[in-house]
Write a structure and sequence with these properties.
Layout lengths: L9 E6 L7 H15 L2 E5 L3 H6 L2 E4 L26 H13 L4 E6 L1 H12 L4 E5 L15 H22 L2 E6 L6 H10 L3 E3 L7 H13 L5 E6 L12 E6 L5 E3 L2 H12 L4 E5 L11 H19 L5 E6 L2 E6 H4 L7 H7 L4
Parallel strand pairs: 1-2, 1-4, 4-5, 5-12, 6-8, 6-11, 7-8
Antiparallel strand pairs: 2-3, 9-10, 12-13
Helix pairs in contact: 1-9, 5-6, 7-8
The protein binds 6-O-phosphono-beta-D-fructofuranose.
Length: 348
């Protein structure tokens, strides 16, 4: 059911889930645009945790001065699920009323936006903004943060190339990508990887080794393998994890596929192999110009949606246009485009 359309005075804004470059650019854009419409902005600290705990702060033009190029989020973030207990849900709803929040801009990936979607069903006006370095949200061509991550990974591949070539080694680069291999695929193509392994396509270790051997026979004495953290061999059921802990949305902490693969390759091919795990470097630092512009466009458009009473939507990039799509549409996983992945094989 549509939330009731009442006059908006106060806009709440929060950033949830894993941070990514561009979050501050969105916050700045939301605060500045809200000012134009005459709305006050209430910053909710640390994702949904902040609204449960009543941890909020007013955001003014002054609060957002100079934050455009800064990585991370001035609001802080967490992976808190306010629907985990009824008590937390009630506390969240109570605080939304207590702080006079008329509508919320929720910046996040699938977890944060799934909460936003449920809140909207509870008649709290919400607009979502698609954030994740993984680029795995449907309804949008790109999430912000992705371009920066791909740029960082491409740079890492370039650097691994020179050392791999000098030592005639196989270099494995493990990158982020829990359920989808967008970062691995795009950076792998940009960096000229010799094998790209992604969660969407389980791999056979012997096939990977055959490919690497063929390259050697062709006189290429080194190889670069990019593997997404969520990729797995065909005979493995679960993910390779680095911890037994799960977050409030039930996600395991992934990591380790690179080392597993490195060991398996060395057992099958007599070539020195080294493994690099890029980890959170991919999420840190300043956003690229592309992400700054995209984040800014998303922020401006999200306030516009609220102004028009268009709730329960996520702003999205389709072609070169910013549009609004229903939040529930965005919550299905967007897998790597098969044609793109197949194209990468031409260069193995
Ligand atoms: O969802 C984005 C992401 O960067 C994933 O690629 C990765 O699996 C996860 O976050 C890591 O989360 P954390 O920061 O909790 O270790």
């Amino acid at each position: 059911m549509e939330p009731e359309k009442k006059q908006v005075k106060n806009l709440g804004i929060l950033t949830g889930g894993g941070d990514c470059p561009g979050l501050n650019a969105v916050i700045r854009a939301v605060v500045k645009t809200a000012g134009i419409y005459g709305y006050s902005v209430i910053g909710i600290r640390n994702g949904w945790k902040g609204i449960i705990e009543g941890d909020v702060e007013p955001l003014t033009e002054f609060s957002v001065t100079g934050i455009l190029p800064k990585g991370g989020t001035i609001l802080g973030t967490s992976r808190t699920n306010p629907f985990k207990t009824e008590e937390q849900t009630q506390q969240m709803l109570l605080n939304i009323r207590k702080y006079g929040i008329d509508a919320i801009v929720a910046i996040g990936g699938d977890d944060t936006l799934s909460v936003a979607s449920r809140l909207n069903e509870l008649h709290v006006p919400v607009v979502g903004i698609p954030k994740t370095i993984d680029n795995d949200l449907s309804g949008t061509d790109y999430t912000f943060g992705f371009d920066t991550a791909v740029t960082i990974v491409t740079d890492a591949i370039d650097r691994l190339h020179t050392t791999a070539e000098s030592h005639h080694r196989i270099m494995i680069l493990e990158v982020m990508g829990r359920h989808t291999g967008w970062i691995a695929t795009m950076a792998g193509i940009a960096g000229g990887a010799d094998q790209i392994l992604i969660p969407e396509v389980p791999f056979d270790i012997d096939d990977v080794c055959d490919g690497l051997k063929k390259r050697r026979y062709r006189g290429k004495k080194f190889s670069i393998v990019v593997v997404a953290e969520g990729a797995k061999p065909t005979d493995m059921k679960g993910f390779v994890t680095s911890s037994t802990k799960v977050d409030e949305f039930g996600h395991e902490q992934l990591g380790g596929i690179g080392h597993l693969l490195g060991k398996a390759i060395e057992e099958r091919i007599d070539v020195e192999t080294r493994v690099t795990v890029l980890g959170h470097v991919q999420r840190g630092g300043s956003p690229t110009a592309h992400d700054r512009v995209l984040a800014t466009r998303y922020g401006v458009n999200a306030v516009k949606q609220i102004h028009e009473g268009n709730y329960g939507m996520m702003v999205a990039l389709q072609g070169n246009k910013i549009v609004a799509v229903p939040l529930c549409e965005a919550l299905t996983q967007k897998n790597v485009d098969t044609d793109l992945y197949e194209m990468a094989r031409i260069f193995y």
